[in-house]
């Protein structure tokens, strides 16, 4: 038997890196994972109760057991159109909305539709690895433009111009961003739009972290896009803390009929006919979920994410060799820079992550997973006591490993010894966390029974 090379080539770059780390933790210490991009991993962040109730009602009604329209139920599309219409633009109609299996499928539709053979798509670096996986899967080439680490991870516009050519089919942007936590200002978005207009590129806007910012407001790029067509994608996954519900969407924002005339809408409709979209009961519940006034709940969630980010920044500031170049302003991650001259024994992010796991049983994702070598990514969706224990261990690891000065360990701050008891009362990290950043924390043989019994 042969395997389609487009599939075997389309591996998620995180996968092989993480597979290399599996099972390498120090058996004497509980594993603490700061790696998985699944906000439900520790159980302390929960969706709004009313959202859960809406889903339960949809199932209990017995009215949503059949197929619905392949681009999404009329009510669900209409609700997404209402909540995603932008100021100073014609309102979206439900025909502008396609309901998808998570944000991932929405991204896949965008790339499949725009990237004709021979075309290339411009992707952010650092960025979410699914983008390249999808391009590979569909035999489309991709090029990276850079984000500026010292300037809030804004887009380096010059680098976009550099990699652009006549075959470029789209510019993909991610705001708020994974892994950088960047939140773009209105001015920066306007600059991006102006550039897209000059280069005559449509924008694919991954806005799955819409609304998840720590002060600076989230601005949908469509709001300032003018005549530049925008395919904006989102989902319930992150903002509502329910990635497992698999409800996402793709909204087409266009003034004029460029996308319509080129058949993009018809083509997306066809793509929707393949998977037939997310489950009907979830679609039935979505209008109620989107209409909730959950601002108090959201503020509370964001406060936790923000305080985890601030706590990490405080700890990083005390650790020689580590630095945060631009603090996150949204989403659920912090990128920490590792000074390779300070860690001569583990001069790459890959080695740093490996040694940290081997010695301290703390799992972080090497930046290389996101094309950000020299950084590691930690998540902010971790309860404070766990985060504290993790940073104590990172601190003692760095004190041992940092070769920049001869200052060796201050053990008074290390709670590695207490780590066990501190963590004993906390919910254990699930042994398998899925998603594109899925991490197998134990050998598959040990996970199998647990997974199957779900
Ligand atoms: C998590 C994530 C997605 C995927 O979202 P799903 O709704 O789970 O498919 C897409 N883009 C980014 C940047 C993400 O972090």
From TrEMBL:
Cofactor dependency: pyridoxal 5'-phosphate
Keyword NAD appears in the UniProt entry: no
SUPFAM superfamilies for the chain: PLP-dependent transferases
Keyword terms, alphabetized: Aminotransferase, Pyridoxal phosphate, Transferase
One GO MF term: pyridoxal phosphate binding
Lineage of the species this protein comes from: Eukaryota, Viridiplantae, Chlorophyta, Mamiellophyceae, Mamiellales
Family: Belongs to the class-I pyridoxal-phosphate-dependent aminotransferase family.
Residues where N6-(pyridoxal phosphate)lysine is found: 238
Gene3D superfamilies recorded: Aspartate Aminotransferase, domain 1, Type I PLP-dependent aspartate aminotransferase-like (Major domain)
Stated name of the protein: Tyrosine aminotransferase
Pfam families (alphabetical): Aminotran_1_2
Any GO BP annotation: L-tyrosine catabolic process
InterPro entries: Aminotransferase_I/II_large, PyrdxlP-dep_Trfase, PyrdxlP-dep_Trfase_major, PyrdxlP-dep_Trfase_small, TyrNic_aminoTrfase
